[in-house]
Amino acid sequence: MPLQGVCWFLCCRQGFSLLGRDYGEKEEEESFELRNKEDLTPNGRTPAEVTVSQPTCTANGTNGHTLSQSPVKMKKPITEENKMGLEEEPELLVKGWLLREVRGSWIKHRRYWFVLSQDSLDYYSGAEKGARRLGTLVLTSLCSVIWPDKQTYKETGYWSITVYGRKHCYRLYTKHFNEAVHWACAIQKIIDTKSPVETPTQLLIRDIEENKFNPEVVEHIYQHNPILKYTQGPLYAPLLPFPYGSLEHTYHNGKGYGSVREEAVKLFNCLQQLELVREPVPIIQGVLQTCLDLRPLRDEVYCQLVKQTSHTPSPYTAAHLRYWQLLTCMSCTFLPGPNMLKYLRFHLKRIQSQSPESEMDNYASFISEALEKTKCRECVPSWDEIQMLMNRQEMLCTVHYPGPGSCQLYISSHTTANEVVRRMQEKLGLQDSKNTFALYEQNALWEQPVSGSALIADVLTSLTTKEAEWKLCFKLYCLLDADNISVDSIEYFFLFEQCHEMVVRGQLPACEEDLQALAALRLQSLMGDFSMHVPCPPLDELFPVHMLETRVLVSLSAAQAMPPCQVAAQSCPTTQRFPTGLLAGTLWSHTATAVQKQKVELDKRLRSRLKEESSSVMTSILERWKGLAGYSRRDSMAAYLTIARQWSGFGCTLYEVDFYISSTGSFSQKLWLGVAASSVSLYKQGESEALESFPYGQICSYSVSDSNTFRITAGDRDLMFETTKLTEIIQLMNAYFSAIHCQRGKGEDPDFSITDTTEVGFRQLVPTPTPTLLELPSHPV
Description:
The protein is α+β, with helices and mostly antiparallel strands. Among the domains are: about 95-195, Pleckstrin-homology domain (PH domain)/Phosphotyrosine-binding domain (PTB) (PH-domain like, Roll), CATH 2.30.29; about 200-245 and about 255-390, Alpha Horseshoe (Serine Threonine Protein Phosphatase 5, Tetratricopeptide repeat), CATH 1.25.40; about 395-480, Ubiquitin-like (UB roll), CATH 3.10.20.90; about 650-745, PH-domain like (Roll). Helices cover about 40% and strands about 15% of the residues. An eight-stranded mixed sheet has the order 20-19-18-17-23-22-21-24. The longest helix has about 45 residues, at about 580-625. The protein starts with a helix and ends in a 19-residue tail after the last strand.
């Protein structure tokens, strides 16, 4: 057999036909015919050969198609309306009267006789034999059913079911709930028994996979199937199969999405717009956002991009390279499914072999490497990241560390927090430190550790969407060895700065004299010796100002015998002297005005007293600062940490606990839970002595009960904590336990021991998803 005949036999399939589109018809046709797997012969082919073509609109309003020489009658998923009598229908499963919604008529619902068979849902003019069939909806695996819902019943008085087919959508109504459920179950059961439907594109991709080692056959497949190649015309249906009336988009209806099939066609139109616009970033970002929201569309967009980068008339123009730029962004954001990934890799290798040392070759190489590293993103790439990806470059990321310092690192879309932590340690010479470090999202009032596996590109994107000014910080995380840190090292400076952050936040229990001494030492370390000509930092950067606010409030509340509202209430007699009406309203308005004036006066006194207290404390701090003349920066930091170390919980991380209860009956509210290198302790807020302390050797297990409840089992005691910092507490405890095991594995003898039975347990009591808690921010388990 001649080579051309062999190629023709291998690449062509029966049934690849694009239905002609008549724009005058009321109901829109699909751009290609779907076919079931069971229609194929054992060797994967049908008796005759038909080639699939890309639909193009001809002058007379119909689509032109490239077909083979042998005509083949197409099997239509939705049959034509006919006059077949009811008695001729075989294998009837369910039948009965239902109301169908009729559009374009003053009668909203009409009553028809519906019959469900193994292949279709038909409706007739009546139940008698010989009744005229008015319509048919052929059931395939892509059909879907929406079950009856209570909201529709409340609005209409009917229970409704909706059946979506390829061209038709039947909205059916009945007065009886059981009848609606019975029909929905029966139709869904038929749909579930149908073989999966494949599109012509899928079948051609399988042909290419089977013949990928035969370049001549592959080239012949591309040449004779324009549906695989670049087109300037529109796409009328998705390249991959999606359920009709799919409900997966309903969760994002607030964003204006239609059905998945509709969105797939819209995305292809967006792709074509890339060739025309001057600034492609907004379109690229929009396509990526749609793929993030509607997961099934990711493979569809990959398939469309492979199509538009195959056999392009002008492959080296800037307009055509836009497709490659979007494909680059997709490859760094979403990983395609297994079958699409194989097809994409084949396409990239084919382009590299056809166009070596070209821009397309460079993009294909970059995409291939990206696919090896890509994880599913949580955020759509930012504007800056997309511009970097379009040029195949890395982004510059600024990482701050305690004090005014910062480092700039180049990162890719795949760089994780753990990688940045490791590079920062190398840059700052901290590789040999026994303590561990992490990245934090931080602003002036709040901070949170970043998960070790989090992508830095996602973190930076999320920071740009927040209102306050946020930054990425590199800090000490697990303080395992605070005593052996060299005074001259940058790690000692980190310890000093983070200790001062705790002081300013009020998380270092100390008397006011010690706090003023710490503030003076802070000034000496920052400014040197006292000078009248040097501007002094504000008090809230040196001293826990909330302590002054609390003291002023207590003094003012003691002066007030009772709240203003009670004073106003006592001034009025209990019996009503005047009838209700205009005069009563005037009296009430006068009382409310008086209460408001008292509140304004109280606020004014509060601000005045607070200003006096702040001035007094600042004066005391400045006097102490004058007495530190001659102290070097190193001496000031050492003296500062010496005072801080007097607290027995020095080095622990404090978390607010809203509620605490023990199996022994202990109960308390508003506590601090301190997680340290050797134990977990409970403190009353502002007090230096621990209420209870549990060394890790005594902890049998710790677990999550629900999204806000944390449980620790220590010996025969169970402790329950209610806190919003649940994830951070679990992560930090995991990091400490991991560090302990690492020390034991290296033969080091830690200052404490843990039992081999210590477990981390998780019990999910609520259906809402919770974050992964076993993931460490910076320390690999």
